[in-house]
Amino acid sequence: MCYALVMSQPAPAFIYATETGNAETLARQAHERAVASGWIHASVVNISQLNPADLLAHPLVIFVVSTWGDGEPPSDATDFFYALEKSALDLSGLRYAILGLGDHDYSEFCGFARNLDARLAALGATPLLPREEADLDYEDTYNAWIERLLPLLESNSVTTS
Ligand SMILES: Cc1cc2nc3c(=O)[nH]c(=O)nc-3n(C[C@H](O)[C@H](O)[C@H](O)COP(=O)(O)O)c2cc1C
């Protein structure tokens, strides 16, 4: 049987939340890997450009998010997360993954990633794989995470013969 290289919709959306760019760098790397895997319609976007209702249009979402303050969202994610906390959206059609970036020296390690994960699950969304949390030296964790994630995206795709 012959399968087309290009995956059909829904393509994954990579959403990043960042203060100083680490999460954006990794989200863009992950997006490039997805595109190279055939997800030519995959997108990458800053969380500040979205509101929670936009998740209804993106049934497959990959979050790469850092934590600031003391377990708080980075400033670009404040409005989105505030709205998500207040929201009663039905996200039962959403599948998601989260890579959190943080620093183990903080008591609320990857606090925003944890709170985001909990809120998405409370609204009915389903994780593709357990949340991953990376310390300041995040490269090895990222590399292992993306290798686990990409096959899961494909198993959620519909290939065209
Ligand atoms: C002022 C400040 C506060 C931070 N607060 C936390 C925190 O509460 N929990 C955590 O895990 N990491 C914390 N971090 C670490 C950042 O999340 C980490 O450096 C991350 O890689 C930054 O990613 P970004 O460039 O995408 O924002 C903090 C860093 C700074 C400088």
Structure explained in plain terms:
The protein has 161 residues and is of the alpha/beta class. The protein has a single domain, classed as 3-Layer(aba) Sandwich (Rossmann fold). 33% of the residues lie in helices and 17% in strands. The protein has helices spanning 22-36, 78-86, 111-122, 139-155; strands at residues 13-17, 43-46, 60-66, 95-101, 126-127, 132-134. The longest helix is centred in the C-terminal third of the chain and has 17 residues, at 139-155. The protein is globular and about 40 Å long. It starts with 12 loop residues before the first strand and ends in a 6-residue tail after the last helix. Bound molecules: flavin mononucleotide (FMN).
Low-confidence stretches: 1-5
Q: What is the helical fraction, as a range of percent?
A: 25-40%
Report the end-to-end length measured between terminal Cα atoms: 7 Å
Instruction: Assign the CATH class.
Output: Alpha Beta
Structural class label? alpha/beta
CATH superfamily annotation: Flavodoxin domain
Radius of gyration: 15 Å
> Per CATH, what is the topology?
Rossmann fold
Q: What sort of overall outline do the alpha carbons produce when their principal axes are compared?
A: globular
What is the helix/strand order? Answer: EHEEHEHEEH
Strand content: 15-25%
Global mean pLDDT: 92
Q: Per CATH, which architecture?
A: 3-Layer(aba) Sandwich
List of distinct ligands in this structure: flavin mononucleotide
**Number of discrete helical segments:** 4
